[in-house]
Amino acid sequence: MVLLAFLAAAGTFNRLVSMLHALRRGERRTHSAKTLKNSSVRAMSRVMAAPSRPSELRVPRVRRRKVKKPAPGSPPGTLELPDGSAPARMYRFLFDEAAMEEGPLAEEALEQGLAAVPERTLWLDIQGLPRPELLERLGQILGLSPLTLEDILHINQRPKVEEFEGYLFVVVRQLRLLKNGEIENEQMSFVLRPGLLVTIQEFPGDDFEPIRKRLRDGRGALRKSGADYLAYALMDAAIDSAFPVLEAFGEAMDAVEEAVWNRAGPETYAVIHRLRRELRQMRRAVWPMRDVAAALSRSGIDAIGGASRIAFRDCHDHVLQVADFLETSQERTAELSDLHLSVVSERTNQVIKVLTIIGTIFMPLTFLCGVYGMNFDTAASPLNMPELTWRYGYLAFWLVALLIVGGMLIFFRRKGWLGSRPRARRKKP
């Protein structure tokens, strides 16, 4: 009888301990039917394949570059090349509807290469930030304002549109996903006037090769249109490069959501914080570009013709899509934070519930052990705990203890506090 009581108590304890281990492991919970209905098959496949450990999660990181700001009181138009800038390379494209010439442009031939050719469009593609001396020379040839030259080298500029006498100056930012998983936040400057477009990129290499190929092949409206339409095509390509970045962030958020369900903890919360920080950095780059695209699509800018103005509406639409995704992603990270706190709170409540059940089961047993553990002299009085003199008093104690434990376990299980609630049997008609 004692052996049976010991085995029953050990089985109960092992069951409760297994529940605690299951809570520690954070066994996967199934999503509700509403979540499954609203999720696409592709998103769910990414979630199912996502890593469950926070240490395996990778959040795309926006590459940050240290910018040396001019000293307070510096005169306007101060030119200073940022540290770590790669040497600038210049390429010249001269084209019309019938033919196109392209090739690298040396610094010595800069003035000759920028000479205007009637009825032809000139595109000067500068990859990398030019040295201050070269930029000053370019400004003298094209008649650029010193403030424009300063903004080209100050790579922390906010996207903007500025109309000067004789030319239009535009600053945009390009988000590009690199092979190592980082995100490049690059500043691009456009100097636009009739028949001439100058683009200055912060880094060598770009996503403009399809535009160059269209120029070489003579397909589409690029060769037939002017410099303003070429500016639209380049700006549209720069904006479209953000969509792979958005897809990477969407997959990262799906993986984080799965990790929250599987193993919510401080590491997962830190990943959510990194997601929010990177999204905030991207939002700073994209949000002002809505005003830039909207301004270029409106009338009143002499450097942009009517057909190109209509084309810039497409840029505005794409910028709005990127901005809306970033806004939605920011809200989703806030929801992930709330979900993380809810999951942690629920698991804490489950642990407290299991510990409370254990304490409740042992409470009457502790009372019985305390009562019958007192030293009473049954010889002094027959009322001094007569059960001590019973022949089967010890076995009766264990029988009562087993009945109490068994009754409490049955009660807890029927209430659904221990395991799953038993299903009610349907009565046959």
Structure write-up:
The structure is a single chain. The chain has 13 helices and 7 strands. The protein has a 7-stranded mixed sheet. The longest helix has 67 residues, at 306-372. The chain has 429 residues and is α+β, with helices and mostly antiparallel strands. A hairpin with a 2-residue loop joins strand 4 (160-164) and strand 5 (167-177). It has 2 domains: 2-26 and 374-414, no CATH class; 89-343, CorA soluble domain-like (Beta Polymerase, domain 2).
Describe, in short, the structure shown.
52% of the residues lie in helices and 12% in strands. The protein has 429 residues and is of the alpha+beta class.
Tell me the β content: 5-15%
CATH superfamily of the largest domain: CorA soluble domain-like
Range of helix content: 40-55%
Q: If you consult CATH, what is the topology of the largest domain?
A: Beta Polymerase, domain 2
Helix- and strand-based class?
A: alpha+beta
CATH-scheme architecture of the largest domain: 2-Layer Sandwich
What Rg, in angstroms, do the CA atoms define?
36 Å
Mean pLDDT: 81
Poorly predicted ranges: 1-10, 20-52
Number of strands: 7
Tell me the number of structural domains.
Answer: 2
Order of helices and strands: HHHEEHEHHEEEEHHHHHHH
**CATH class membership of the largest domain:** Alpha Beta
Shape: rod-shaped
